[in-house]
């Protein structure tokens, strides 16, 4: 069982002056049970790819199969296959709309036609999972919560659907370090304990190294590499080309290059990378 993305091309605003090829012949297979990270610079096509995985977008060329079913066909099997994917958008809290937390989380399960008892059970479980006390929060308006709590409500709404494949588009964007660590732990638990297949967009190489067993790197709509994290990180050129080093490290490397020098960086963490650059320059007798 897997998600198969075959030769997918997506062009926004085709045949207009704003035409943009967001995905260019992308193929990858995401195996059930895996934890896949999708990395790449801003505008490289990550969100577009995520929206193809749950059928929100239709490929201009190519196809997406989930567990062997073409999800872009208009039939019952394709509808069911699309439902096995839960997509958490970037800044999902912007999509909350119901008047209470419990109604918002119940929205998806209700659409699935589940019984009232089952819906209540799922809302409770999902709230417990994201550590929001059911009794305390169920009747609150989502809009009186903090940003981090709103994000948790939005994620609970998808978890309550119990998707087989959970797609998260930069789930920790804009969260403070504590909330971020907490959320990543939860996602890890969904993978290890609940056996969900996770596909997560992330810019953070340290998070990717800790969590993912496969990494796909996108660059200008193309899939550059799709492999185990150590194999991907060992490919320094792809990491550099895809803009995946910390901005400060990229800027320093550019300045060094402008002075006619070249330095290799073999670590991803910012502080270690900066130390490595300084050591390398000092070894060459350059005072810095
Ligand atoms: N609805 C749209 N209409 C036109 N162009 C779009 C649309 N959505 C995205 N694009 C363009 O397609 C390209 C890929 O965008 P996408 O959002 O998939 O990239 P991304 O890697 O997710 O970026 P980010 O990291 O900033 O979220 C970008 O050049 C973007 O400007």
From TrEMBL:
It comes from the Bacteria. Residues 3-245 form the ABC transporter domain. It is found in: Cell membrane. InterPro entries: AAA+_ATPase, ABC_transporter-like_ATP-bd, ABC_transporter-like_CS, ABC_transpr_CbiO/EcfA_su, ECF_ABC_transporter_ATP-bd, EcfA2, P-loop_NTPase. It is a peripheral membrane protein. The keyword Cell cycle does not apply. Its EC number is 7.-.-.-. The keyword Endoplasmic reticulum does not apply. Gene3D superfamilies: P-loop containing nucleotide triphosphate hydrolases. Its main location: membrane. GO terms for molecular function: ATP binding; ATP hydrolysis activity; ATPase-coupled transmembrane transporter activity. Belongs to the ABC transporter superfamily. Energy-coupling factor EcfA family. ATP-binding (A) component of a common energy-coupling factor (ECF) ABC-transporter complex. NCBIfam families: ECF_ATPase_2 (TIGR04521), PRK13637.1 (NF010158). This is Energy-coupling factor transporter ATP-binding protein EcfA2. It comes from Megamonas hypermegale.
């Amino acid at each position: 069982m897997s998600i198969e993305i075959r030769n997918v091309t997506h062009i926004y605003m085709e045949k207009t002056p704003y035409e943009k090829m967001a995905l260019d012949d992308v193929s990858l297979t995401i195996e059930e049970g895996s934890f896949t990270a999708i990395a790449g610079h801003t505008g490289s096509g990550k969100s577009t790819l995520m929206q193809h995985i749950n059928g929100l977008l239709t490929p201009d060329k190519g196809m997406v199969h989930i567990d062997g079913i073409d999800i872009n066909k208009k039939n019952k099997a394709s509808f069911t296959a699309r439902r096995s994917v839960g997509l958490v958008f970037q800044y999902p809290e912007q999509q909350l709309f119901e008047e209470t937390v419990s109604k918002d989380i119940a929205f998806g399960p209700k659409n699935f036609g589940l019984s009232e008892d089952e819906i209540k059970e799922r809302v409770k479980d999902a709230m417990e999972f994201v550590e929001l006390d059911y009794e305390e929060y169920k009747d609150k308006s989502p809009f009186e919560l903090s940003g981090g709590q709103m994000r948790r409500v939005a994620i609970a709404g998808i978890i309550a659907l119990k998707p087989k494949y959970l797609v998260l588009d930069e789930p920790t964007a804009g969260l403070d370090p504590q909330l971020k660590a907490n959320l990543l732990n939860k996602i890890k638990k969904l993978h290890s304990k609940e056996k969900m297949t996770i596909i997560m967009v992330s810019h953070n190489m340290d998070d990717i190294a800790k969590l993912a067993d496969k990494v796909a790197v996108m660059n200008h709509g193309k899939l550059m590499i799709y492999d185990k994290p150590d194999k991907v990180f060992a490919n320094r050129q792809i990491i550099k080309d895809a803009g995946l080093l910390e901005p400060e490290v990229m800027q320093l490397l550019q300045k060094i290059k402008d002075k006619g020098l070249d330095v290799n960086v073999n670590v991803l963490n910012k502080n270690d990378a900066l130390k490595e650059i300084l050591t390398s320059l000092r070894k060459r007798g350059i005072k810095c």
